[in-house]
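FAQ
Q: What does a multi-component entry look like?
A: The components come first, one per line:
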Amino acid sequence: MAKEITGTTWTVYDANTMTQAEIYGSVLCELGDKYQNIVGLSADLAKSTKIGLFGDKFPERFFNVGIAEQNMFGIAAGLAKSGLLPFVSTMAAFTAMRGLEQVRTDICYQNLNVKMIATHGGVSFGAAGTTHHCTEDIAIMRALANMTVIVPADGIETAAAVRACIAHKGPVYIRIGRGFEPTFYKDENYGFEIGKAVTIQDGTDITLICCGITVLQAAEAAKILKESDGLSVRVINMHTLKPLDEEIILKALNETRRIITFEDHNIHGGLGSAVADVIAKSGKGCAFEKVGIPDCFCVVGYPEDLYCHYKLDSDSIVEKVREVMGKDFEEDESWEDEV
Amino acid sequence: MPVTELEIKNLTETARRIRHDIIDTTVWAGGAHIGGGLSIVEIMTILYFKYLNIDPAKPDWDDRDRVVLSKGHGGAGYAPVLANRGYFDRGELKEFNHFMSNFGMHLDSLKVKGVDVSTGSLGHGLSMAVGLALGARLQKKNWKTYCILGDGECNEGSVWEAAMSAAHFKVTNLITFVDRNRLMIDGTTAQIMSVEPFADKWRSFGFIVKEIDGHSYKELSEAIDSALEEKKSPVMIIAHTVKGKGVDFMENQVKWHYGSIDSELAEKAHASVDRS
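Then the predicted structure of the entire assembly, as tokens:
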């Protein structure tokens, strides 16, 4: 059972046994008491996304629009225009794709204060198949002007992100998972700040930049690599994909010269691409790899099996680090190292 | 309040000025969605010059009535209405469509005073209007939301998602119009994608439907007055209009959905408006 959760006025969730979504639902209920302008919306997924907890507590402030995502995001835009603070929850696929034009044109274009908590991100709804996966949303959402994109590492960080997004004016996309993703953080007292990545373990040989479920896996891999290989592995939780913490990437680039990114997302356009942009712009050489869903539609299976299949689990991360550490890239004749 | 004879006389003169400004804006802009701009002039004029509770000096006033021009390509018709109502100087319309102008074909609510909601992509406005109306109701505000759809726009599935929700949530502080001018870009609504039986569609989605002549202030006024009294169901006012209304050579012509006019054609257009 969960220990006491500090950093909140009272314990509103049991992080060890609740899903990311359940924690989100509980925190939103807590915030609903404090902020009377919060309204909730879902599209027949109030139960699955757990925004239904808010709906049960504040029925007059909750709108279930039925299976009609375009309408939901349009209504959210209108509610925001009227001065309210809408939290909208459906699956990531239906937020980033089915409702995309409304998200982009109604919400982002008008820079409206709408918070989108998208569940079932990446391949977290494994067995449901590609229709219910979303390995494109980070790329899509990053390309929307005015949008802030957050991929919390676990339920506790989801709670921190949901609290933080209230004070953050403008549209926010928070992408969470579906299942009982294990918890990385013990409490919210680590100083979550939108746009400020967290170095969860310092190191000098190589840097692993992660978001979402890969944070815990990389942290475990770093432990194994230290014990068995004597490697000093830096692990960064890049919970905010936009705005990106470029400073922490440049620091890692200068100090470790080897970077690998890990994400539950297509390798195109997500965390890896965002980090690659920063590295390329710096003009500095760096051994770099991005690991994610290799530009394919995911096979069917339980999420934990899928994470292993796509090499996002701690054992695969260990192997990938050994591979990159073994690369003798500095002996390359065409390599002109200025640093 | 029913429209009086004096009001009709004044509204008619105001609409005439607005039509002249639409023609000028089309010239200044190098081209505009003039046909569908001209068809909504009476609807917009009676709203902005009789019904709306607004203050052009305070465009962000919390308690103002809201307007969502869901057929956002009506921008070149809408901006002259706002200019004539005093939101900005009509001279600003000379910049329409120009580099760095605040005015593009589809008006941006963050740039144009008086525009409550940015529109342009069809099928978005009614959802946002439902959201505004629900927001007003939840916050116990008395302001109303008015939404103007195009008939071709009603091909969009999202319009019917919004319609379903307006009825489901019993949104009665929203008054919706369709500018039923029967023309789209590629042809007539009957040719391209038939929307009939149009009134029945809205009725079956839970709306109280009023079909009127969208150029008659008397009929517009009666429809709006009764819609304002309605407390049970959302109201749809199907306003039968003429695309290009007031400019004889543009009326009911598919090709004048969007067009450019030179000074010679503009003179003819102005003369036609003066005769109308």
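Q: Is there any commentary attached?
A: Sometimes. For this entry: The interface with chain A takes residues 62, 66, 108-110, 116-118, 120-121, 123-124, 126-136, 138-139, 141, 157-158, 161-162, 164-165, 168-169 of chain B (CB under 8 Å).
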